[in-house]
Design goal:
It is a single chain. The chain is an alpha/beta fold and about 425 residues long. The chain has two domains: about 10-155 and about 315-380, D-Maltodextrin-Binding Protein, domain 2, CATH 3.40.190; about 155-315 and about 385-425, 3-Layer(aba) Sandwich (D-Maltodextrin-Binding Protein, domain 2), CATH 3.40.190.10. It contains 18 helices and 14 strands. The strands form four sheets. The protein has a five-stranded mixed β-sheet with strand order 2-1-3-13-6, with helices on both faces. Strands 9-10-8-11 form a four-stranded mixed β-sheet. A three-stranded mixed β-sheet has the order 7-12-14. Strand 1, helix 2 (about 50-65) and strand 2 (about 70-75) form a beta-alpha-beta unit. Helix 1 (about 5-15) packs parallel to helix 6 (about 135-140), helix 9 packs across helix 11 and helix 9 packs across helix 17 (about 395-410). Bound molecules: beta-D-galactopyranose (GAL). Beta-D-galactopyranose (GAL) binds near residues 52 and 283.
Length: about 425
Amino acid sequence: MRPRKIIAALAGAALVLSMAACTKDPVVDPTGDPGAATGQLEIFSWWTAGSEALGLAELVKVLNDKYPDITFVNNGASTGGGSGKDVLQTRMAAGQPPDSFQVHAGAEAQDYITAKQLEDVSYLYSEFKLNDVFPTDLVDMLTKDGKIYTIPSNVHRSNVVWASIAALEKAGLSTTDAYYDSIDSFIAALDKAKAAGIEFPLAIGTTWCQVHLLETVLMADLTPAQYRGLFDGTTDWRGAEVKKALDHFAKLMSYTNADRGDLDWEPALVKVLDANAVFTVMGDWTPAALDARNLKEGVDWLWAPSPGTKGIYGFLADSFGLTTGGPNPAAGKAWLDVISSKEGQTGFNQVKGSIPARTDIDLSTWSNYQQGASESFKNDAIVPSIQHGAAATIAQGNDTGAAVSKFTVSPMAEANIATLQEELAKAYA
Ligand code: GAL
């Protein structure tokens, strides 16, 4: 990976943090020897269903092997894309933190750091020897004033389009044409699919999935530098590039299923698998759902960087920290050991579809997709995901979701595009 690339991508995000600090200082618990941990470990993760739950189960297996005296409980909300984060925040605000929780690396984690709800776990990077195995620029990105508050379990890519080969055939589309070169060529393919009788060829789920689509369109219509500038004030959200992206977004949304408001990402994917739609734009947790159905790349499905984003890697990483005042800090540390260990990152990522954050895992027997993703991560321009907390704070994410949802439930008319653009500009002001 190119030195400092992620830092460049995320530095802007760090500048726009806005959560008010509360008064309690984080305290490192000196009694928290993970080796001696017993009792209940409570975490909060939204990996509660489908292929995501299978990934989490791999981590629990490693936990049970390494720490047999710990009982694992996930009290997370079952909402994809982390859209249930408000449940966690309510609990934290009420003084009932779990021991550890899933949080995206970047601006989103920064919110909890600012609110002093996360402990400094830099010492665990030494204890677990993580500085030797995580890419330096990833560790630098996680470092705030010399302290590190979370440990990544994986790295995901957001800007991917998935297609069903059966649906392409039904739509009269070849499996090799360059639909993904630009948003406009993709729109031409969607038109063709419509003409072939597939009414809603682009499958999508609820608000967070729509924000996810929007971020990939921004990645397509802005250069990487312009896109990064959206989060440090150097790119104008009210400018022409963003307007072009919003026009494209509105057009793309017109090809999507009317029941989108009720669906999470996996049911949207099922529409593609049932050939009721042809494509879906979603992160690379998707192959896990395809594997779970025994569907094969090249036989049943294809993928490409989402339209117009070849050479760009939309970055996000899940990470875990130790909560301030969590009930069982020793068990929390055991969890951080597990999610960062070679065994944990191997078992988990193989099933989850992501790539390990650790660089000492041999991927040569992993899926084609994962090997390709690992190459892209090393070579492509890295830009931070909005929906998945790398670029946007929780407040900005909430405001983005509200603006997008207001737009997509209304007739997506020109006047409403202007309102969407204005609301986004305000969210990142
Ligand atoms: C992302 C998360 C992924 C996956 C996805 C869908 O925010 O980083 O690991 O869980 O949501 O729920």
